[in-house]
Amino acid sequence: MSESTISSDILLDYLKQYYPFYDKLTPSEKQILFSCSSIVSYRKGDFLYSCEDDCLGILLVLSGSLRIFIQSGENREITLFTSHKGEVCTLSASCMMREITFDILIEAQEDSRILITSASCFKKLMASNIYVENYIYRGTTEHFSDVMWAMGQLLFTRFDQRLAGYLEDERIRTGSPVLHTTHEQIARNLGSAREVVSRMLKTFEKEGILSLSRGTITILDSGALRRICRISREIS
Q: Which residue of 5, 72, 78, 210 lies most exposed, with the fewest beta carbons within 10 A?
């Protein structure tokens, strides 16, 4: 849902704060960026983009988080990366770059506010301003690095390590040992089946690493999660 009541000053402040190329824009380019940008609120579970949609644009996360993933013909999902507050997703504007030839999907992992700038405006700015072009291509390169890391984890890393690393990363990111998530959500993020996640979580619970309750995972021993990661690396 678009936030039509947001003031021009607030929108302008966001553009200045989060886009390092802003000071390198001409007055007319600044006006283009401003006029093509808007802030949209999404609820947890909302889809922002899929292969059937038009090219969405550049997404800047103001609050909440986005999950960027691909889906197989059997509806199996593989999370490529997540974007959190202050981070920009450029793959949502893949129509601007002929080098990107695969479709992605984007889902709000939690209630989120997103600053969206249309792809057509960014394409115009890229053509006229080298700083904008460099920014977009650098961001896209970083995303592809994230994608390659995710594929490497999926193909070459033991599942107990992947799950332990995911739980520890979430504990650090949220600043709390209590994670409000479901086995299904974890499975989607790790590109696995819910049954596999549930079995491994129960194993961790039996070992005293965590405790499980409906919709909640409480980490009791984060050191054990880190040791699992190290041991798995040595074995693999």
A: 5
